[in-house]
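Students often ask why we bother encoding 3D structure as a string. The short answer is that it lets us treat folding as translation between two languages. Here is a chain of 337 residues written in the first language.
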Amino acid sequence: MKYKFTAETCDYMPFEAKPEGYDRPIWRYSKNPIIKRNPLKGVARIFNSALVPYNGEFIGVFRVEDETSLPHLRLAHSKDGIHFTVEEENINFVDEEGKPYNPYYAYDPRLVKIEDEYFIIWCTEFYGPAIGLAKTKDFKTFVRLENPFLPFNRNGVLFPRKINGEYKMLSRISDNGHTKFGDIFLSSSKDLKYWGCHRHVMESGGSGWWQSLKIGGGPAPIETEVGWLMIYHGVILNCNGFVYSMGVAILDKDEPSKVLYRAKYYVMTPEEDYETVGFVPNVVFPCSTLIDKEGHIAIYYGAADTYVALAFTTIDELVDFAINNHEGVGRDRDLGR
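And here it is in the second language, the structure alphabet:
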């Protein structure tokens, strides 16, 4: 292992070695997709979902769309990180007084552990798309917190620890529909209620087209000795619609609005049938990672808004790729204020 990192590790996570002769930094699981269409009664699709190690197994918060196509969040359980049992009922949220506080819709969750609590961040309905935030300690009681931001906003991602005594959240300004713009921003909070000190992190664009339209956060950033390793998605609008690819960047450890390295090239783009054909074609959408003590990474991503798929890489592969293929874009290296 070349680069030291700080993260909760999981030595029973799934992993496949890189295929011989393969020269890309991320490789797909040989038995993808791991969740297919119509996975259980009344459910048409599960995708864009997140999971964490929990009590020697895995627990996930999954985006589930029933046969109305309305998305909600459900818990899922797995012993091996590949085969899942999804609960039949949606997660029931309560407010901080214990009263019911369920969203009209909920999608694209991230699941992040900070100290002894687990946080769910998702896109919720708040007079338009906005970021929802909830916490749990036992995956039995889910407490929704105050709405972090005004609408319209998506792709909320918490850092896995406080930085300089504050929680940090990535997000992407949005609109009320299929957004055709968007950069990544950073916000801070001391109490998860009041958010401020907003900073610009990264803008869409660069010399390539794959992230020319908009970008957004993916899984929780991984802390390495070089900086915060951030897997994100970039989008292009071509003659057939949006194409979502996966990219990688490294942010400053103490001031993560500063981009230290940003790969010019995508690390994964839709190529396989389950990524190019589906409810929304041409989408790879990373939501979650698992890491073992050797620095192996399992990436869970949504494919074509229809499937859950799995890919693998290592800390060393991604850090080297970001450094060796760095391209400065706009004011990425600035403080962002």
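Translate back mentally: Residues 114 and 127 are 29 Å apart (CA to CA). Keep this in mind for the problem set.
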